[in-house]
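Dear colleague,

Following up on Tuesday's group meeting, I ran the structure prediction for the three-component complex that the binding team flagged. I've pasted the input sequences exactly as they went in, so you can double-check that nothing got truncated or mislabelled along the way. The structure tokens for the whole assembly follow below. Feel free to forward this to whoever is handling the docking comparison.

Inputs:
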Amino acid sequence: MVKTFSTAFTISTHGIGTYEITDRIGAIVRNSGITTGTATVLLKHTSASLVFFENADPTARADLEEFFRRLVPEDAEYFSHTLEGSDDMPSHIRMALTRTSESIPIMEGSLQLGTWQGLFVYEHRRRPTQRSIVVSVVGDAG
Amino acid sequence: MVKTFSTAFTISTHGIGTYEITDRIGAIVRNSGITTGTATVLLKHTSASLVFFENADPTARADLEEFFRRLVPEDAEYFSHTLEGSDDMPSHIRMALTRTSESIPIMEGSLQLGTWQGLFVYEHRRRPTQRSIVVSVVGDAG
Amino acid sequence: MVKTFSTAFTISTHGIGTYEITDRIGAIVRNSGITTGTATVLLKHTSASLVFFENADPTARADLEEFFRRLVPEDAEYFSHTLEGSDDMPSHIRMALTRTSESIPIMEGSLQLGTWQGLFVYEHRRRPTQRSIVVSVVGDAG
């Protein structure tokens, strides 16, 4: 019997960096009772993004952040959208280069992810803030 | 009662830039009668892409375009796929760096998006053209 | 009558490059009997990714690979995550810049893709390896 389950949650971020939400999504799927189907995750913001990344070694995430700091530097001389500060336009571009929604197959009641594959909110703004994530699960509760 | 609804539409683009389709997707979801579930949007092209972006200030989108113009310049000396012109290979690379499909949770009959979060077709070719978008909605008709 | 179908498969990769899986996904959808709905594909790795690309001219994919070789060079002096070799950290960054999951609408029993639009596993590691792909299909069996 196919059914749907939807919910939302927020996380607090405290500066540029990656914040893992894999366990939160896994708990939502278990709570839904859906054992086969698809979980869809969307971040409701344009100055933060989603990204899958390896979740074992934090140095890998530090290197990712340094890469983006160099690829999309602050205060590029051609930026015209600068009202909210130096991290404003880079945050939108870094979001466009990563992801906003991800969909994860569910089998036998579990998210189908690799052993060291985690889903992260990638915060691109410096100031502490709240980020909203919405999740829909569609599948068989059987 | 879970059901599905699928449809397609085209938009006309007139040069490199972003073209918002959020309202079109919202209307399709309302028309489907599905109140809880997931809407999936796919652009059927490899020289244009989808991207979520802030939809309040057009200067942010102009800065995004300038960023991509510099990151993926035309006429790189190593390009071998050049048959369709200077904007051919950059259009494929810019597509690979943004997105082709996005999935959006639906709650209470509405797309769950942030206040200034819009979904755009990002056209990477200069000549006017038509772009096809396909949408599938799966969920509970309430 | 809406139903779900989930399965997984692996492919062998033999070095950096793109490996098309469009036909595999199409066969899974046909096998599912689902004629309207959504197919979700996820790659269970963080040193390889998914990417839609034009599948007619292999020179376009060679140019894409050269672009990423230059954008994310090996042995950047600031990399600290280097335990698994020179292609370790670049593989994670190239993954973050492309995709991990893609969702494809299904109509009349077929994946809705453009004529030259193929889905590829983008392998970022040099050594031959196995990559796992999981697919969930949710929709109406008509």
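The first strand of chain C starts at residue 2 and ends at 14.

Cheers,
M.
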